[in-house]
Amino acid sequence: MKEITQFQNQKILVLGLAKSGESAARLLTKLGAIVTVNDGKALEENQAAQSLLEEGIKVICGSHPLELLDEDFALMVKNPGIPYTNPMVARAMEKGIPVWTEVELAYLISEAPIVAITGSNGKTTTTTMIAEVLNAGGKPAHLSGNIGFPASSVAQNVTAEDTLVMELSSFQLMGIEAFKPQIAVITNLMASHLDYHGDFESYVAAKWQIQKNMTADDFIVLNANQELTKLWADQTQATVVPFSTKEQVDGAYLLDGVLYFKGEAIMPAAEIGVPGLHNVENALATIAVAKLSGIDGAIIRETLAYFGGVKHRLQYVDQINAITFYNDSKSTNILATQKALSGFDNGQVILIAGGLDRGNDFDELVPDLKGLKHMVILGESAPRMIKAAEMAGVPYTRAEEISDATRKAFNLADSGDTVLLSPANASWDMYANFEVRGDVFLNTVAQLKAEN
Which CATH architecture has domain 103-305? Predict the structure, then answer.
């Protein structure tokens, strides 16, 4: 990692732990900072805080005392999920203390060039696709950021010969200052996280932070299917490379079932290893990054053809008696389920859906449900989901939880059918998160295979 001295003997407050906070505290200490960690979880229940305390780092747990900010801190590094309305963050900003997220630290120490990916949907799949293609092309890529690996940890171990491939959330991007990727990707933009940002315009502004320090020597890959991103083309210093499934653009595009980059045919869309038009978009963004990075088209084609998806994100699971199972537990909203269904023949799909009841109806999902072979419905939102099924004319069965739903779906399926878990709802009515929900599905499929 780069040897930087700007934090030596600087008093820095790390607000909130989790993986990113723990990583930031250790890195800053290594860089010579005088670090204080403040986390809301009580010390006796806080293993990360205990570990940092044992390493000699000052830790204050169990509350967020505003008087802590009376100390002369030069910087606050906050957990991305903590909103700027938080009293500690608001007070820091009032006092003129810079507030960063740890991805800024990763940028400052990284010897490797950065490919940064953000967007509302598809960013994890696209991030993973990009890393796999770069690795296959002989350019060692290291996943980091919102994908689950703290960027400030991964950045410590990369060299100038590597590439740091970072998935970035709007929350993380709000806390950058000098951060500058060599290539940036915005997969798409939909209304999301409005409870955090307040309105769509603020959410979009946070995403657009990704390019604020880029120059004409850098590239930003934008989705030309969206009018919003088209409008951005002349609002950045970076060189814009568009991708589109709807028109031929000066970048990556779909034409007559084939994916191209600037006139070079890369591969038929039908060969992509994961289904759905949204994954064609993800593949086009990946192709743009790969070609800008000098990867041969044949390597891109082979890698994307064998791409198996990301766990819980339209993940191919297995086949039992010619019945195929897909795990899309990450589909926690209507749009994600609409995208998942777009990749299948509805007449051969048994859809497992339902979960946390947030009070929204599913009327806009009805056109996408029409023609489904069957639905297995569960969770708090079941009454609303049943209403949508009835409006779409789809037969349905109730289930108690995911294991029950998976077995019922399997029994309803015939050879050639697909069982798709794509709930269109968050998991918190029954499971701690979508990963736990998806793991129950995976385990049940494994049990069914053993039984059959």
Answer: 3-Layer(aba) Sandwich (3.40)
